[in-house]
């Protein structure tokens, strides 16, 4: 399962874990997917158990798609409303983010923050 950060990763992970017989081991999480990481990622993916899934924020690339095809794996992509999730994350959990001041000083309601430039 792959997603853009702050776009529903945890939600989709919990949905998949709710399917009987499907599992996820937190050590099977992947990030970025740079070419120097492919060998290690291939090794980890090739050792997944039947009905086990991995989670990540991996760049889309021909190399990754080829690797998934070689491993005969299905790819689930989660893309929810990133703006809504990201603004909430910055305001509520990450006051050191570079956009925190910009988002918190003007608008007081979330809907107004989504429209900030």
Descriptive key words:
about 120 residues, alpha/beta, two-stranded parallel ribbon, two-stranded parallel sheet, 6 helices, about 45% helix, elongated
What this model shows, in words?
- With 117 residues, the chain is of the alpha/beta class.
- The chain is 43% helix and 18% strand.
- The strands form two sheets. The protein has a two-stranded parallel ribbon.
- It starts with a strand and ends with a helix.
Short description, anyone?
This protein has 117 residues and is of the alpha/beta class.
Write the layout of secondary structure elements.
Layout: E1 2-3, H1 9-17, E2 23-32, H2 38-46, E3 52-58, H3 62-70, E4 77-78, H4 82-93, H5 100-105, H6 110-114
Parallel strand pairs: 1-4, 2-3
Report the strand count.
4
Gyration radius over CA: 17 Å
Strand content: 15-25%
* Amount of helix: 40-55%
Spatial order of the strands forming the largest sheet: 1-4
Describe the largest sheet. 2 strands, parallel
Structural class by SSE content: alpha/beta
Oligomer status = single chain
Number of helical runs?
Answer: 6
- Uncertain regions spanning at least 5 consecutive residues: none
Globally, the shape reads elongated
